[in-house]
Amino acid sequence: MKYSLDLNALVGVSMAFGLKEEIEDEFIRNPPLALEGLRRGANKFVLFCEGGQTKVPHNMNSIYSLLEGSIYNVTLPELYAFHPKIWVLKYVNKISKGAVYRLIVLSRNLTFDRSWDLAVALDGELSQAKKRKNIPLIKFLNTLLEFIPDEQAEKKEQMQQLIEEVSYVAFDPRRGEFTDFAFCPLGIGVKNEFEKEIFEPYDELLIVSPFLGKRKLDRFNDCGKSGAKKTLITRRKEIEKLTPNLIRDFKTYVLSETVIDGEEMLSEDGNEDTVQKQDIHAKMYVVKKDGKHTFYIGSANCSNNAFNGNMEFMLKLEYQKRGFSIDKLLGDLFGDKEEKNPFEIVTQVPNQVEGEENIEEKLQRAIKKLCSEVNGAYVVKKGTEYILHILFNTVPEGVELTISPLQSTKEQLVCEETIIKGLSLRELGALYKVKARQGEAEIQRIIKIETSNIPKERDNEIFKDVIQDKEKFFRYISILLSDDFLATIVEEILQRQELGKGKWQSYESEIPVLYEKMLNVMVHNPQSLSDIGEIMKMLQGNDIVPDDFTKLYETFKAAEKKVKRCK
To answer: What band does 238 get if pLDDT is binned at 50, 70 and 90?
Structure first.
């Protein structure tokens, strides 16, 4: 579950799931390997994210369409957001069939943002009885099921099965100093310990929150006991929301400009694709009451929407370690040399400048509103081309909105029935690019719209777009037959170095090597032969699969049948 999403980051996740390898740059730059990673991995996960908060990639790639079946947009009413950031993972031992479960609660979105974040992982195994501690987590996960359409029964059943298993998992922080924990979802109509306890009187408080709401911070301030120590770490821009009273009561820190702009200062080319600003993005509340310390870590900012409307997820951790104090925690964060402290203290509220509404926020709200008005889409075939009908209940006013399929450059102004003609099969999909404009200002986002009547052959076109010739076909088959993807990449790199950059051996020279590999998988992993057959079917109609390889494949399939009969 994420708020914002970068499709390139999701490609990396899918490849990691599919190939079971740590994803390096060389992997992602290898189109056949990326394609195989998505083919294997995209059906192993379900991802929920805020509608209208998916970034448009700089360089379009047809493989993004293979992710659409695993992405689900969540749009909440009014100005509230779907903002949780958790992972629920299941690992299965292929030999013993035993399973280990991992819950990761974090403040980080699935993007390449380099801001400062926090993450906590709990591991666990199945127990004999359902765990009461897991009830809030299960209620939260069940809430998400309604965002999977009934037509996608397989995905829904996949998630329902995982939820049922998780209800039996005995999670463990694996650290002795954490004496207890609790799951604290927000925005699902369930009262929990976070909302109950966070505003009780305290002796000491540390808030780390990139975004602030004055009313919520006032409430935290008022809950402190007489003489309570209060520390706030936030972003510089948010200081404008404070009052002299809050600045006096909270010892307030922000990241120094040197850290925020550090990459730009060190960069020689200033390329915005590689140079990023850093800032605080972590969300953490550390409370000391009656000598006990409690951590709350997760997605909720110190704002009214986070506590009263957004869907959020926090993890409560009771912490007990001899000699621990919030001051020591801050000391570890700030360092022991003031000149090297990445943070600086703020002692006064800057003068607030009254200005017009932020235009980017207005455009973003228009896209969010459009997401809530989606009424589906469908495809009609006319001759060799396709016509797309996109339906909306109403269209937000005051902003110019255009829409196009993610893989197409054909765009139309958004209306209640938007029609886009002259599309090819490869341009069809459930992911759409929306542009919102007002004057010179423009933002682009990707949204998902459930689209019916997309021909099943669409995925074939994506494979043909990546595997365009015989050389790429043999590279792809070599990957399918490999049990060590890293070794396959190293072999390719060495081959390119030997033959010259960008050159490959002719595919005829690969036949003997593939023969040996196919003989091996027929004995040890016959599923790989079936995978090759599926790929060959998807590439039919193009002069990509050589006849001699087709004959070789048919020979092995015939031999496989004989082996099965003998068994």
So the answer is: very high
Handedness of CA 316, 321, 323, 328 (dihedral sign): negative
Strand 86-92 relative to strand 54-55, pairing: unpaired
> What is the pTM for the complete model shown?
0.88
Count CB atoms within 10 A of the CB of residue 179.
Answer: 13
Q: What is the largest CA-CA distance in the chain?
A: 85
Q: What percent of the chain has pLDDT over 70?
A: 88
322 is written with which tokens? 């001899």
Phi-psi region of 544 (alpha: psi -120 to 50; beta: other; left: phi over 0): alpha
Residues 6+ away with beta carbon under 8 Å from 163: 138, 141, 142, 145
Please give the residue that has the higher pLDDT: either 478 or 132: 132
Angle between helices 547-566 and 527-538 (to 10 degrees): 150
SS (H, E, C) 408-446: CCCCEECCCEEEEEEECHHHCCCEEEEEEEECCEEEEEE
For residues 475 and 187, the model is more confident at 187
Pair of tokens at residue 247: 């600045």
Helix (H, G, I), strand (E, B) or coil at 16: helix
Cα separation of 364 and 305, whole Å?
A: 17
pLDDT at position 59 is 83
Instruction: Sort residue 40 into left (φ over 0), alpha (ψ -120 to 50) or beta.
Output: alpha
> Which band of pLDDT confidence, cut at 50, 70 and 90, is reported for residue 497?
very low
**What are the tokens at 83?**
């903002």
The DSSP letter of residue 96 is T
Task: Spell out where 212-255 has E strands.
Answer: 224-234, 251-255
How far apart, in whole angstroms, are the C-alpha atoms of residue 396 and residue 373? 9
Distance (Å, whole) CA 145 – CA 96: 30
In one letter, which amino acid is 524? H
Which tokens in the block code for residue 42?
């995209």
281: three-class secondary structure by DSSP = coil
Which residues, 6+ apart, have CB-to-CB distance to 191 below 8 Å?
none
d(CA 550, CA 544): 11
305-335 b/e (C-beta count within 10 Å ≥ 16 → b): bbbebbbbbbbbbebeeeeeebeebbeeebe
Residue 531: the pLDDT is 84
Question: Tokens standing for 18?
Answer: 């599919």
Torsion over CA: 243, 248, 254, 256 (sign)? positive
Residue 152 has pLDDT above 90, yes or no: no
Q: Region 179-192: what's the mean pLDDT? A: 88
**Do the beta carbons of residue 101 and residue 89 sit within 8 Å?**
yes
| Structure confidence at residue 372 as a pLDDT band (50, 70, 90) | very high
Matching residue, tokens 């269209």: 395
